[in-house]
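Per-record layout

source: Coxiella burnetii
name: Outer membrane protein
length: 130
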Amino acid sequence: PVAGNPHGNVTLVEFFDYQCGHCKAMNSVIQAIVKQNKNLRVVFKELPIFGGQSQYAAKVSLAAAKQGKYYAFHDALLSVDGQLSEQITLQTAEKVGLNVAQLKKDMDNPAIQKQLRDNFQLAQSLQLAG
């Protein structure tokens, strides 16, 4: 998923986990940078390293993209205080106008699991540490 100018000549790639405090803090910084730089393309790479709820949130966010609401959901979920749960994640999805029944179906799409595996492999090849 991409924010900012999808055709921008500068690309920032962010690997993140929805339960990571540093990732949550960086969200407002990235929003400000996107607003200030019209040539910036931000590519988001879900990297759910904090367990099951992180994995669940990552799947929901990628499924949200199918409804055209990835960035709204991404921003809202990173604004949640405290630990995530399936209930909080789905309530957040409802708040941004996602069809939760469709979201649950889309979460099971093998392409979503593949994207998460690809993100992990890329992070490992870049020797990134959470």
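summary: The beta strands are 2-4, 10-16, 40-46. The first strand starts at residue 2 and ends at 4.
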